[in-house]
Amino acid sequence: MGFSVAAAAAILFAGALVSFAVIVESVETATESVRDAQGREDVRVAEALNTRIVLLNGSANGTVVDLNLTNNGSVVIHVRALEVLVNGTLYTGAVTLRAVEGSTATNLWAPGQALRLTVQAPVPAIASVKIVTETGYTFQGWVS
Questions:
Q1: What are the beta bridge partners of residue 115?
Q2: How far apart (Å, rounded) are the C-alpha atoms in residues 34 and 36?
């Protein structure tokens, strides 16, 4: 009977050791995932803080909103990732022109460059326009 008790204790100890190893590995993986997510969030926040959009001029003629904007920040903005709201309604799919420095072939809007956006949207004479970048930066202005 003495040997069976010792063998059972050894088996339980080995099982506890394996279980502990699995738990440690899981906690380590979860901690690494959280650390990576926090790093990505820090980069996104820094990019949002370094993003600045300025409205040079714009017009709203009843069916079209035309915007001339400048990237005054230090972050390159992906033009096709911009969300466009006119009077609180999303019109991203209705953007008919995205031209950076006159070129529609590029998707990158570098600091210091001008962007022309044309949006098909039924608007009154004065319209509220909101541009949201992929980093979460929000620009809001008025055009008439």
A1: 69, 100
A2: 5
Question: Does one domain contain both 62 and 10?
Answer: no
* Residues 85 and 37 placed together within one structural domain of the fold: no
What distance in Å separates the CA atoms of residue 95 and residue 85, rounded to the nearest whole number? 10
Distance of CA 31 to the CA centre of its chain: 23
Mind listing the pLDDT tens digit for each residue in 40-62?
Answer: 999 888 888 889 999 999 999 88
Q: Which domain holds residue 89?
A: 53-143
* pTM for this predicted structure: 0.74
Place of tokens 């608007």: 123
**Contacts for 28-32: CB closer than 8 Å, 24+ residues apart:** none
Count of other CB atoms within 10 angstroms of residue 84:
21
pLDDT in tens, 92-140: 899 999 999 999 999 999 999 999 999 999 988 889 999 999 988 999 9
